[in-house]
Amino acid sequence: MNINQEQLIIFQSVMETGSFSAAARKLGKVPSAVSMSIANLEIDLNLNLFERKGREPVPTPQAHVLYEKSAQLLIEMNQWKQHAFALSTGLESALNIVIVSELLHTHWVDYIRLIEQKFPTLQINIISAPQEDALAMLLDQSAQLAFMFEREHLDHREQFVEIKKEALVAVAANEHCLAQLDQVSFKDLVQQRQIVVASRDSKIKPELLFSKQYWRTDNHHSACMMILGELGWGVL
Predict the structure, then answer these.
(1) How far does Cα 83 stand from its chain's mean position?
(2) Counting beta carbons within 10 angstroms of the beta carbon of residue 75, is it exposed (0 to 12), middle (13 to 18) or buried (19 or more)?
(3) Lower Cβ count inside 10 Å, N or C end of the chain?
(4) In the chain, which ranges are E strands?
(5) pTM of the model as a whole
């Protein structure tokens, strides 16, 4: 049995248009080519797909069953071709994207959707990490894209595109001593413990560090819980 994509497309067109001649017009072929293709398909399948007693071919029950399967099969064949083309042109088969923890609340999914629409067969893996770890993943190529904060100095291996602006706000629990002040100065902040979302590697200094004393976590949810627990203030 040797079924090709063109035979399936012709079979699908005959089923949808109701005749060999209408399918031929739709596909830009002569009716005899369509008729021959269906005849060869019937030989390959050892099935009678159409009754040819009247003016127009009448699909058999077997043809209806195969028609339901042919649409999905054609989609899968097209996806297979797209995937093979992407591989042949050097595109990645998978894309690792790291989202900086403090940016998880933003509409980053909108940008992932744009990638998915252009490359539907691409496998996308989403990872969340602190800013310092996200940068390390980019540089060691364990991630190919990152949604992260702009830095004053870029590594020569990076390319940066500004997507949007995001405001960072220093916050504390209502019961924290900073919240009792009428006005909070930078001097007040640096004297109090800061909760920092940072790399697990304690040798790496957090970028958003201001206080003299700080506790660190690699997860922004943990940072929120610690701030709400009056253990310190943080930048969120």
Answers:
(1) 15
(2) exposed
(3) N
(4) 50-51, 58-59, 94-100, 123-129, 145-147, 170-171, 194-197, 214-217, 233-235
(5) 0.52
